[in-house]
Amino acid sequence: MDHFQLRHGVMHAEDVPLTRIAEEVGTPVYVYSRATLVRHARVFREALSGLKNPHIAFAVKSNPNLAVLKVLSREGYGADVVSGGELVRALAADMAPKDIVFSGVGKTAAELLQALDADIGQFNLESKEEGRELAEIAVQNGKIARCALRVNPDVDARTHEKISTGKAENKFGVPIDRAAGIYAALAALPGLDMRGIAVHIGSQLSSLEPLETAFGKVGDLIAELRAQGQKVTHADLGGGLGVPYKSGDVLPSPAEYGAMVAQVTKDWDVALSFEPGRVIAGNAGVLLTRVIRVKRSSNASPFVVVDAAMNDLARPAMYGAWHDIDAVEPNGTRSVSHIVGPICETGDTFAMNREMDTLEAGDLAIFRTAGAYGATMASSYNSRGFVAEVLVDGDKYAVVADRLPPADIMGAERVPDWL
Ligand SMILES: Cc1ncc(COP(=O)(O)O)c(C=O)c1O
Ligand SMILES: N[C@@H](CCCC[NH3+])C(=O)O
């Protein structure tokens, strides 16, 4: 069920009209639905019910808002973090340290120590160099780091090239054909408890096949490691499940994903964990924007200039991504327009020649499927402020991230006294 729907001609988030949020909080603003987050969290968990005690770590990078994390921690979710900053957020949202896994190719020594001190559940090591460094830090501090080795299975995830992570030329993980040797070398180090394998081949996957291929390779590796006498008790299968961005898109369902995983892993005899991001948060949020003006300077489609820009929602500019755009109070007509932001870059374009609800100056509109990789990728480019975020729960809402005005951002800058 979609919690962003028209009621009496006005788009609502759950029971709250978006016109009210626009008036009271201003635009642009991200609006999240608690009910959708909870539903997605439960659907994903249910999809894995064929597995024994699966561990689910929400990919914090997809939506690190504290209130969003709190909703998920109350659903029993842990966190997949990729920086010290995300670790602090996961802990602040009451995610248990044992339920936190730390991924990423560039964890610094300070971050490794921070995570050791927090006693997190697992480090997903991305190289032998990182493993050696973590071992040293652990020994110096009298700790043992629970670790998985992230492998790069050289599988084409068939997604956008910038969010593919499992091809040999991508920077992530260690080549799977060298993994057994690296695993054995790291397992011999004091300070590390090598206990498993991690894999994540990319994001917004629209087919299960590449995942199945990658997981099959991980299964072979686990068997090989065990045959060599290594202990393998855990496997982290990452995230990556895609979501529909365009109405009518058909993607594999969490249930189909769960069934595939259950089938591929049935003989593994390991504790499985997962790192979903987009599939939980993507369709739980919209970006609410207001039309500044409509430029009709030629016979071509008009430019509808909205107050949201590529600094607020970077996906269309970065990946050419499509987001459905709907009027908040549709007037019943449709037309073809270009939807653009105010930033001085041609790339600040959300849609070209899009047939959609007709929008006029002052109208409100939403960019759908903006709950993941939306606010978190915002910047202050063109000295625009940071966008606000709101969480709706039934007929109430709360501002869960204040708008950060340009003056506050400038306030963090200093002109040296020698200038
Ligand atoms: C290591 C890791 N885990 C999980 C995720 C979450 O991916 P998604 O949002 O596609 O589920 C990502 C991002 O692609 C990632 O890099
Ligand atoms: N930022 C990307 C997803 C990156 C996933 C990172 N592991 C997007 O908006 O689609």
Automatic annotation (TrEMBL):
Functional pathway: Amino-acid biosynthesis; L-lysine biosynthesis via DAP pathway; L-lysine from DL-2,6-diaminopimelate: step 1/1
UniProt modified residues of type N6-(pyridoxal phosphate)lysine: K61
UniProt source species: Pontixanthobacter gangjinensis
Gene3D superfamilies, per the entry: Alanine racemase, Lyase, Ornithine Decarboxylase, Chain A, domain 1
List of residues binding pyridoxal 5'-phosphate: G240, E275, P276, G277, R278, Y373
Amino-acid biosynthesis as UniProt keyword: yes
Coiled-coil region: none
GO molecular function: diaminopimelate decarboxylase activity; pyridoxal phosphate binding
CC cofactor: pyridoxal 5'-phosphate
Occurrences of domain Orn/DAP/Arg decarboxylase 2 N-terminal (ranges): 36-281
Protein family per UniProt: Belongs to the Orn/Lys/Arg decarboxylase class-II family. LysA subfamily.
PROSITE patterns: ODR_DC_2_1
EC number per UniProt: 4.1.1.20
SUBUNIT field: Homodimer.
The keyword Ubl conjugation is assigned to this record: no
Gene: lysA
Keywords: Amino-acid biosynthesis, Decarboxylase, Lyase, Lysine biosynthesis, Pyridoxal phosphate
Name of the protein in question: Diaminopimelate decarboxylase
UniProt GO BP: lysine biosynthetic process via diaminopimelate
InterPro entries attached to this UniProt entry: Ala_racemase/Decarboxylase_C (IPR009006), DAP_deCOOHase_LysA (IPR002986), De-COase2_C (IPR022643), De-COase2_N (IPR022644), De-COase2_pyr-phos_BS (IPR022653), Orn/DAP/Arg_de-COase (IPR000183), PLP-binding_barrel (IPR029066)
Swiss-Prot/TrEMBL catalytic activity: meso-2,6-diaminopimelate + H(+) = L-lysine + CO2
Annotated residues for binding of substrate: R278, R315, Y319, E345, Y373
Top EC class of this enzyme: lyase
Membrane-spanning intervals of the chain: none
Recorded superkingdom: Bacteria
All copies of domain Orn/DAP/Arg decarboxylase 2 C-terminal, residue ranges: 30-371
Listed HAMAP family: LysA (MF_02120)
